[in-house]
Design brief:
By secondary structure, the protein is α/β, with parallel strands linked by helices. Helices cover 36% and strands 15% of the residues. Strand 7 (169-171) and strand 8 (176-180) form a beta hairpin. 42% of the residues are buried. The protein is built from 8 helices and 8 strands; from the N terminus they run H-E-E-H-H-E-E-E-H-H-E-H-E-E-H-H. It has a 6-stranded mixed sheet with strand order 1-5-2-6-8-7, with helices on both faces. Strands 3-4 form a two-stranded antiparallel ribbon.
């Protein structure tokens, strides 16, 4: 089966395409393109974030690298043995994922880190293919309400039956779904998400995986 992935200069969303073109002028050394899924193709854990950060994944070309959200996520992955090596946003060769893959609900960086509903819907085809490509997935962790709802809609399920709540878990047909507030700098700074709260989510995932 051929897996569909967005081309680097994906034209589906005009606003994101225009923003990407502007960023190429402002940040010519950045990746500035749709960010593909990254990690172990045989992974049992799939993590779904919101969208690339302007000076994070949009710079590096790899999900959750180069910003505070990435520091929180990758250091937690290291703690729970989902990371080989040592996380270094300036040297992507120093680490790799172990039994884990990471993607985003929206593949291109949006202005002000806020994709609109049309952009989220346009990217559901790619999220669907990410799920198909990860054939051994046992657990999916969604970071934030938008990623959660996008996944539920991609699976043709009802959001009312699977509402977003921090540290919620749902038994779906092919995997178990875990939800967390996004580990963004804003959420961490405002204490909406503490490191202890984020760790609790991974404790639940770890318990499930070891069954």
């Amino acid at each position: 089966m051929k897996i569909i992935t967005p081309i680097k200069n994906c034209p589906l969303c005009l606003r994101l395409s225009d923003f990407r073109s502007s960023n190429k002028l402002t940040y010519p050394s950045f990746y500035n393109g749709a960010i593909p899924i990254y990690g172990d193709k045989n992974a049992e854990l799939l993590i779904i974030g919101l969208a690339p950060g302007l000076k994070g994944a949009n710079k590096t070309g790899r999900p959750f690298t180069g910003d505070r959200a990435g520091e929180t996520l990758y250091n937690t992955l290291l703690k729970y043995n989902y990371l080989h090596g040592h996380y270094d946003a300036n040297d992507l060769e120093k680490f790799s994922l172990n039994n884990c893959a990471i993607t985003n609900a929206v593949k291109c960086v949006p202005p002000n880190n806020k994709p609109n509903a049309n952009e989220v819907n346009n990217c559901q085809r790619f999220l669907s293919e990410d799920l198909v490509s990860q054939k051994n997935t046992r657990a999916v962790l969604v970071l934030g309400r938008i990623a959660h709802n996008s996944l539920i809609k991609t699976l043709n399920l009802k959001i009312s039956k699977y509402p977003f709540k921090h540290n919620a878990c749902y038994e779906l047909s092919n995997f178990k779904l875990f939800s967390s507030y996004h580990c963004s700098r804003y959420n961490i700074n405002t204490k909406r998400l503490t490191l202890e709260m984020f760790d609790d989510v991974f404790k639940n995932i770890d318990y499930f995986m070891k069954k």
